[in-house]
Amino acid sequence: MSNHHPDGDVVDQIADPANPQIARDIRQHRPKIVDFIQATFDALFVDEPGNFDLRLRFLCAAKVAALTEEAGLARFYLDALECIEPLDTDAKEDALEKAVFEHTTRVTSAPASCDQAALDALNAVGMTEYEIVTLSQLIGYVSFQARLILTVRALAGVERAAATAKSGSRNFVRHSGFTAEPIEWASWLTPVDLATATPDQLAVLDESGPTARTSPYYLTLVHNPAVLRQRSGTYNAIMYAPGGLSRADRELGALVVSTLNGCPYCASVHAQRLNQLTKESDLVTRVFADPVSGGANERERELMRYARRLTLESGEFGVHDVTRLRSLGMSDGEILDYSHAVAIFAWANRLMQTLGAPILPNRRDGSEAGAGHA
């Protein structure tokens, strides 16, 4: 196994290539998050034996970045590929590459459309469960990474180059199946059996959270413990770190994104947490009814708008979006905290929606329990 890593932090380099120190200074509001994000990159982009080699990982990452309209990040991954293997633009895709690229496009652009058959198609071309989980983590990570770069660039006051396409923007589709009641989730892969788990897998589960050993979700992700360790560290630092933006506002970002993306399980978890933090359920009701503009006051509406822009309209996101939150009196540190919470659910939803399905209250067998378009 070998690693091919850049000099310095990737997000800092891409956000403002002319002066990465500006990005570094902005992000030092949360140094632990900075370290976890780079450590996740280091864990994902390793050359391992098998079907999902480093070449294919860089190609998939470039595709995710391009679909999210983060051109600088897409170029970074293609340049990284050139360092290990010249890009052959005339090469024909084999069955494995075709299946992986189709899955990457689907998960990036329409995560709620994924189903068991999507994973079966990967399995049919030889992808192992370890490789499928790694691919899923990579797609989610780059979806997160691209949105973080957009945020940091906007906070630095750097206007992005004009987009040449609208691929980074998705039409809002109203989803159904949302509830603030607890629901379950069933994996489409075989979760790791605790009886045969390695010591490292068990350690990572314990690091991830108090219920991870009994969670089908974490038991699925721990097929690749190295990536899960860094992903859990990133998530926990974003959602639970003290100081800065209130926990309730972070949970609001998580809930809005999960509702926009059509992820009932994530929406259920974070609706419950938001209700606990606010001591009332009206805000959750408003988000479920209208995640685009359902706020009761200017601040709620602007926070919801910002989450929508970064989630569905990343191709048009820029300095003006940050300016609107500053006009509410939010500090740049609070805006970064909120952006972290919004962006991490570009990652979390894409794992939850594409590796399994929620078991909705009226179904207890897990079948056909996808996000459900209204």
From TrEMBL:
Protein's recorded name: Uncharacterized peroxidase-related enzyme
Q: Domain of life, per the record?
A: Bacteria
Q: Entry's PANTHER family?
A: CARBOXYMUCONOLACTONE DECARBOXYLASE-LIKE DOMAIN-CONTAINING PROTEIN (PTHR35446:SF2), SI:CH211-175M2.5 (PTHR35446)
- Family annotation (InterPro entries): AhpD-like, AhpD_core, CMD-like, Uncharacterised_peroxidase-rel
The parts of the chain that form a coiled coil are: none
Q: Which UniProt keywords apply?
A: Oxidoreductase, Peroxidase
Domain Carboxymuconolactone decarboxylase-like, by residue range, is 225-307
- Which GO terms of the molecular function aspect are on file? peroxiredoxin activity
